[in-house]
Amino acid sequence: MRALLAGARRKEPALVGLTRKLVLCESPSDSKAAVDSCLSIAANEISDRGGKIKLHRQREYGDILEARFGPRKPKSTKPVLLLGHLDTVWPIGTLRTMPFRIADGRLWGPGTLDMKVGVAMAVTALEMLSEADLLKREVILLLNSDEEIGSPVSRPITEKLAKESASVFVLEPAQGLAYKTARKGTGNWRIDIRGVAAHAGVDFEKGANALRELSSVIDTVSGWTDLKRGLTVSVGVAGGGTKTNVIPADAFAEVDVRIAKGSDGPRIERRFASLKAADKRCSLSVAGGINRPPMERTRGTEKLFEQARTLASEIGIELNEAATGGASDGNFTSALRVPTLDGMGAVGEGAHASHESILLEHLAPRTALLAGMLARST
After folding, report:
1. Can you tell me the mean pLDDT for 288-317?
2. Residues whose CB falls within 8 Å of the CB of residue 182, separated by 6 or more in sequence, listed in order
3. Same domain, yes or no, for 177 and 189?
4. What whole-number distance in Å separates Cα of residue 116 and Cα of residue 45?
5. Which domain holds residue 203?
6. Domain boundary among 261, 292, 323
7. Is residue 282 predicted with pLDDT exceeding 80?
8. What integer pLDDT is reported at residue 75 of this predicted model?
9. What percent of the chain is predicted at pLDDT more than 90?
């Protein structure tokens, strides 16, 4: 591990340079052209380092990059899957107010922490291992283009490669200084209420108030929260009505659901499906469901973490594990019972926020740790 740490320190300027290229190529999920441009940069850098490139072409979303490193082995020797994404939540033009810069021991800019630095770390770790001839098992690097919007096209590709792999390392940022061994699953629902419009003064009794009906529904679904089970139901957006003197005929709510246990997914879906309007003059419709299953802590993930903690101690890192309420593509692979370790990317703060940044002091040690895990796993 000491040799890997020294190698990571030597390559840190190049790692930062690659990060700069990726960050300066803005890549919001909803712009295929922008994400494809960023992916093209990554593909060229990976190809220059000996990776074998395969593009999964998409029509509506950005293309998906699959790169393979190391020797192809018999089917009995499964590869390791490195999982990341190149799309961000930031719209084109964000760099004008959030420029890429290095200051105060940090590297700043949109998409740095989540998760372009993690991608650059993976490319650097693979380059180090290839140069030292330490890759004895094939490693697949999969960079998705739609993770921030729920992975609508990349999910089947991720799951297919995960089923072929011995383990999955996810390049999402660390939880503080910790690796992530559990994540909540996510679900989204939209509830629409249709009532009856009427003049609020002249014909009040002829109206059926959709907003009043919605308030009752919001109270009902919010009551499904069970903190002891790690289940939360949060109405984040709601609206309705037209004018204060009109009984509102329409209302809606958008609901975020988080689950810590896989068994809660079908249960909460049944509850939403059973919703009915109390006022018989109103109609209610519900759309949505569980998008990502929870990443529950498994014995396989525990073994990966213990391995990582041992390697980390060799270079002076006290590594802990954490659970988080956020989800990633690692949720999909863990649900397939493939050992999955998450949070193996950068250390920093401000993901999805204007102060997004990574701490440079952790960049080389965490890259060395990633390389050590890949070498040990091979």
Report:
1. 96
2. 260, 294, 295, 296, 297, 301, 323, 324
3. no
4. 13
5. 185-292
6. 292
7. yes
8. 67
9. 97
166 and 38 assigned to the same domain: yes
How many angstroms from the chain centroid is the CA of residue 244?
41
Q: What is the pLDDT of residue 136?
A: 86
**Residue 76: its pLDDT value, please?**
66
Domain harbouring 201, CATH code: 3.30.70.360
pTM over the 0.85 mark: yes
Number of domains in the chain: 2
Does the pLDDT value for residue 2 go beyond 70?
A: yes
pLDDT of residue 14: 97
Is 140 in the same domain as 22? yes
Same domain, 8 and 101: yes
Decide if pLDDT at 301 tops 80: yes
Same domain, 178 and 142: yes
Q: Are residues 174 and 149 in the same domain?
A: yes
Task: Please give the mean pLDDT across all residues of the chain.
Answer: 96
Q: Which amino acid is at 357?
A: S
Residue that is last in its domain, among 273, 292, 311: 292
pLDDT exceeds cutoff 70 at 265: yes
In the prediction, which pLDDT does 292 show? Answer: 95
The residues, any chain, with a CB within 8 Å of residue 205's CB and separated by 6 or more, are: none
